[in-house]
Amino acid sequence: MAVFPAVSLILVTISINYCRSQLVVDFTLPSTENYLELYSTSLVHYRNADYQRTQLYTELALADKRYRDVMLFKCYQRCSDQGSQKSQQLFFLSLVNEEKCTRKCMKKLFGQPLQLPLWAIKDFKFRKPYSFLQYSYYQLGDLTSAYEAALINLKYNRDSEMMQGNVKFYSKKVKDKSRMLPHELPDSVDEFNMGVTSYMKLDYAAATHHLNQSLSLYIEETKKCKIRCATGYDEYVDKKQPDLNDTSTFQDQFVRLYQEVMECRYKCLGKHDKMVPDLSEDYLPKLLNYLQFSAYQINDIVFAHQIASEYLSLNSGDQTMTNNLKYFAEQLKSAPESYAILGDLIEENKLDMEVLSAIVGKKEIRKRLKDKQNYVLGDMGLVSELNPDKNILWRNSY
């Protein structure tokens, strides 16, 4: 079977002049300021069938992108207010202040934000660089690294028949998978899948470990997604900002500047759902459901109580979970403290939806949520108007 390369390249020629790698190679090392230039240069080498340079430039581009993502989150952590805001006005002001502070922090580290063309944003979102990388490794005879890169690309492109075939090919050729060096650390979905596998094997200790890791990563990944919405890092080319004058009202400024931000934050709430095939309900409540039962099975009643409580803040009508929580409470002398980090995120998610509803109107929100069990809004006055069937489970569609 032949391994297929990626197609439809968009090429950008870049000059580079600054060294940042210690790799030992037989040609001059690449030097540049950012991952867009590195990646664009890798595409030029890919077109010229120079797979060694393609591999090197792509690896450095991915490394630079990961580093920028890490520093963006660190900047945000320094700038963010602790706890959740309880009103739309304070929530909005908090977003504005966090955005301004985070931008200032990133500018100090990296200068002006990158002006990314839309094709580059899409490529990195769907891990297209790994498609070029796996084919380059294949051409260089490193099937182990090619296999690992192909698996990452397939994770974000499950319908790709080409990459499915490549992964099948590599799986037969690579015998010692322990030699695979990961380009990306396990994310929330990876840990979730490992947790479910352990759960099905009745290994509840391992299930609790993986699912708890998945929850921690979910909180971090959702926050990172929202950070990018608020800060615009990285900006795309020709992005237009409204020209507001001093006479603009608070509402004018909010609607014109932040509708796009809030729409983006809304989509962050469903980003994990698309990555788990055949999911019978939203990702977060499904994760919490597995986790509370696994914690109970290893006799961690306090943790089981905390997780069950947070589940009910998403789906207050679930009678089974209500009964579970009652049972956990009976086993404890006093109610444990809440899972504060998760509780704050859920409260923030509700405010996201509340503010978006104020912008686009409840009618539009009801249209989006029609005939869907609502695990995101909680009790904010919309669910009662929808009157959904409590037994209907759904996946967000964005």
Structure description:
By secondary structure, this protein is an all-alpha fold. It has 16 helices and 2 strands. The chain has a two-stranded parallel sheet with strand order 1-2. Helix 1 runs antiparallel to helix 2, helix 2 packs antiparallel against helix 5 and helix 9 packs antiparallel against helix 10. The longest helix has 29 residues. The two termini are 36 Å apart. The relative contact order is 0.08. The C terminus is likely disordered.
Query: So how many helices?
Result: 16
Largest pleated sheet: 2 strands, parallel
Distance between the termini: 36 Å
**Strand and helix order:** HHHEHHHHHHEHHHHHHH
Outline, from the CA principal axes? globular
Query: Helical content, roughly?
Result: 55-70%
C-alpha Rg (nearest Å): 23 Å
Mean pLDDT: 76
| Residue share in β-strands | under 5%
Structural class: mainly alpha
Give the tally of β-strands: 2
Order of neighbouring strands in the sheet with most strands: 1-2
Poorly predicted parts = 4-26, 371-398
Provide tags for this entry.
two-stranded parallel sheet; 2 strands; 398 residues; mainly alpha
In brief:
This protein is mainly α and 398 residues long. The chain contains 16 helices and two strands. It has helices at residues 35-47, 51-79, 88-110, 118-125, 129-140, 143-156, 161-173, 188-200, 204-231, 250-268, 283-297, 301-314, 319-331, 340-360, 362-369, 383-386; strands at residues 115-116, 235-236.
